[in-house]
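Q&A log
Question type: sequence-to-structure
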Amino acid sequence: MISKEILEAILKVIDEGIHVIDLDGRTIFYNDIAAAHDGMKVSEVIGKHVLEVFPSLTKDSSTLLQVIESEKPLVDQSQTYVNVHGATIDTVNTTVPIYVKNKLVGAVEVAKDFTQLRKLIERLLELEYRRIPTKQKRKSTGAHYTFEHILTDDSDLLEVIAKGKRAALSQSPILVYGESGTGKELFVQGIHNASTRRAKPFIAQNCAALPETLLESLLFGTAKGSYTGAIDRAGLFELADGGTLFLDEIQSMSPGLQAKLLRVLEDGVIRRIGSTKSNVVDVRVIAAMNMHPEQALVEEKLRLDLFYRLNVSSFHLPPLRERKNDIALLAYHFIDQLKKTSGQHAKTISAPLMKQLELHSWPGNVRELKHCIEHMMNVASSPVLLPEDLPVFFTEKRKLPIEEITPLREALQETEKTLIQLALTKTEGNVLKAAKLLKIPRQTLQYKMKNL
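Response status: OK
Response body:
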């Protein structure tokens, strides 16, 4: 059996705050890390009741005393309290009951200091709010593009735009999905400007750009005193009241935050963090994803109930490689843009170059094409853009000797077979994990496995 001295020595060097109380609520162990978190000395806490040392706590708010009372563990509970010196501390605690011979003798708490992180969150919120114009400063609604700004001759995309114009007249939430660079925000701004909300705010937020705690505070707002340094601040739902809130890369949002979003979509009510007051908001939510919803559901990145609510109106924006007729149209549009903004001379595209542009797969879609044209406009020495003006990644592709070339279908099947086998090997035969690794639905993988 480990002696008391050895156990205490181990607990003292653990890099987490540890606080142990007995059944009476008196501290019987308190390590140096916990003391540093709480702004106390170990000697000020040992032997004293937890409510004596932290007078802002009560029997109902102290996680240690709650566990003594309920005999049930509390996991990752946030707690804000004030010590006897008047300092405010924010922690995230895991607290569990202690049993000896099946008898409750006390409780132990492992605490992570959240104070500095809260201060950082507050600073980041300040910076994020500066990015969003206030109603007084806003010279426009925040949506600069209409459907007329979407350049296309592609019949599929034209049909999507026509449906988008009709959906704009409703008040239902909308889901837009497509690869990065396909113009999702342009399309969403088009919906806003074609709607009855066009004169009201349009606010866009990328859900992948911020950690969960910060994103939650930004969306829902904060109440004064909800944590150290917190002030009364409206969230994006309130700022977008009457207008549109565009949430990009929604699959990056945590399941818990997705559940809160679903509640807002259902009843239109939000509550600032730390507040007991509910506010009704009139906001149309448009969400976007850079992956197919089915894939997001299989990978458990999107809640099924949220998908059902958003999928009232959904739109898929096709990738540029499926819109070959748009490549020339967009390329000359970007040439014209650069001529106007940078004073460059107009250029034409040679036939061999246009052929290469049409054969390229454009993984970065319209955004990649724009950057490619800009590169060529900067380096071209003649009025005609040539294949040699292309960026390096176009010209450094691996070239197979002619004798190595096999029929395309056969080569693709062999490559697919190899990738599936590698994925199954890596996941020890777990089909669901292999599907996630390959980023395809489980059902699709099972079908392909049958045909290997």
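Response note: The longest strand covers residues 88-100.
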